Amino acid sequence: MPEKTIQDPDWWRGAVIYQIYPRSFNDTNGDGTGDLNGVTERLDYITSLGVDAIWLSPFFTSPMDDFGYDVSDYEDVDPLFGTLADFDRMLAAAHERGLKVIIDLVISHTSDQHPWFRESRSSRDNPKADWYVWADAKADGTPPTNWLSIFGGPAWEWDSRRRQYFMHNFLTSQPDLNFHNRDVQDAVLSAARFWLERGVDGFRLDTVNFYFHDPLLRDNPPLGAGETPSTVEASNPYGYQDHLYDKTRPENLLFLERLRALLDRYPGTTSVGEIGADGQAVELTASYTEANRRIHMAYSFDLLTPEHSAAYIRRIVEEMDVGIGSGWASWALSNHDVKRVASRWGDGLDQAKFAPLATALCASLRGTPCLYQGEELGLTQAEVPFEQLQDPYGIRFWPDYKGRDGCRTPMPWIRDNANAGFSDAAPWLPVAPEHREMAAFEQDKDARSVLNRNRSFFAWRQNQTALRKGDMTFLDGPGETLLFVRSHQGETVLCGFNLGSSPETFNLPGLDLENLNAPGFAGTVAGSEICLNGLDAVFARVKN
Q1: Could you give the residue ranges of the DSSP H alpha helices within 307-449?
Q2: How far is residue 428's CA from residue 46's CA, in Å, rounded to a whole number?
Q3: CA 401, 402, 404: angle at the middle one, nearest 5?
Q4: Which helix (H) or strand (E) element contains residue 85?
Q5: CA geometry: angle at 213 spanning 210 and 217, to 5°?
Q6: Is the terminal CB of the chain with fewer CB neighbours within 10 Å at N or C?
């Protein structure tokens, strides 16, 4: 394993993680798809943002049915993205710049092209026969349970060779691994060890609560009257069920302890889990991230929804903060699976004001913020015509749900270049015309751009330990203001955000405030009085 100097093993607490979707980041070989060398080429840009780490979405060998989230070889790079040598060069270059590198670990399922599955489906008595979730049909030939796939239809697919059904929570070409089999656990831990030995700084764990299923194969009950799912679109019948038996099983905790034990052998590494849960985000985050026992941090989809009032954000964050115990949350407002926050929360607002405000808000909450590529530019959701859609999820549920392609369009670098500087060839998804004006190197020229406001804020935040590691307490405020204090080792910072368009002036009796002059924001304080314009923020030291 390459030598690494670990100055702070808890570096991940409050660190800013920049998520890269490699297909859409930067293409260096002219095939219309981003690659690992494209990441290396833009590392100076990433460093200039003031972030601490990058998270790379999957680049492993894959038939790309789900664009890399269907892995056929956990220990190699798909030729689309380059080679292992390209990865090693990228990793070394990132470390030279002080950037940590986190990679996606997609182990709840594999591709149906993975050698493990090819062997498993060949017969009922081969060495890997029990590596996936197989079950006999009911007497009438129908699937063994009522479980549904998130991508539409039953979570079971008939296999004529074994004359059994196999389970898939996503595409039919993404069969679920059987984590009840200890050999499966050993195999995926071995894959994790492969990358740890190469020097990665940790893993983002895809669908971390999907690893285990109910071995008794009990049907899920319907969702209770009045309950509404928060993690899927209304057009998706997956939301009709209470998913008691096809995910979030108690056995998962023991496996996460095995995974943590492996990570602990590599000092300074970390893990962030994606929890797709219906109404259990606080409980699961608390148990999954229990200090020093399981994964380091986790995020849910509760701030990735359309709802975004100050009251809603306070409720979600406060419930998490109160209930998380010794654990640690991660927060994101955008990622590769949801509509971009500039459109989801900022539709109709002045994006020059809203985009930096949203970024600063996410980076001020207690937890670890994730910034999705293009979010630093204020990119809006792109409209991708049906005939150009690539996402099987969107194709299945069109037009009520248009899928995930609109947040995955190519990163714009140069306004006037072909394909906005992303590639010399026609890209795998079209460049959004409106993104050209927001191109990174165009914004770089303007000190008042969204990009440069975000850079200035993150540079300022680096020296605000209270914002990185401090405790958090919410305060009451008028209208659409969101107020809380962060406290760490005697330093207390008030964070005030006005998510509305109307100005607000109010008092916080008993507080004596000193403006910290966070760059890019014009809110003022005088004693206990706060003045906030619409879509503005203020950060102030609490002196008493």
Answers
A1: 310-323, 341-344, 351-362, 392-397, 440-443
A2: 23
A3: 110
A4: helix 84-96
A5: 150
A6: C
Residue type at 110 in one-letter notation: T
> 339: which 2 tokens?
């509509």
Tokens representing residue 321 in the block: 């903060």
CA distance 517 to 510: 21
* Residue 11 banded pLDDT, cuts 50, 70, 90: very high
Q: Could you give the CA distance from residue 155 to residue 136 in angstroms, rounded to a whole number?
A: 14
The Cα–Cα gap between 338 and 274 comes to 13
One-letter amino acid identity for 162? Answer: R
Rounded to an integer, the average pLDDT of 199-207 is 98
- Structural tokens at position 395: 């194709």
Catalytic residue status for 206: yes
Q: What is the pTM of this model?
A: 0.97
Report the DSSP beta bridge partners of residue 485: 473, 494
DSSP single-letter state for residue 221: P
Give the side-chain half-sphere CA count within 13 A for 97.
23
Look at the chain and count its residues.
544
Label residues 114-127 b or e (16+ Cβ within 10 Å = b). bebbeebbeeeeee
Per DSSP, 208 falls in state: T
Residues linked to residue 372 through DSSP beta bridges, in sequence order:
19
Dihedral of CA atoms 129, 131, 136, 142 in degrees, nearest 10, equals -130
Distance CA(25)–CA(39), nearest Å, equals 7
What are the tens digits of pLDDT across the range 453-480? Answer: 999 999 999 999 999 999 999 999 999 9
CB atoms within 10 A of CB 385: 9
Catalytic-labelled residue, pool 206, 321, 405, 504: 206
Task: Check if 157 is active-site.
Answer: no
78, 274, 337, 504: which is the annotated catalytic residue?
274
CA distance 449 to 431: 21
Backbone angle region of 249, left / alpha / beta, with phi > 0 → left and psi within -120 to 50 → alpha: beta
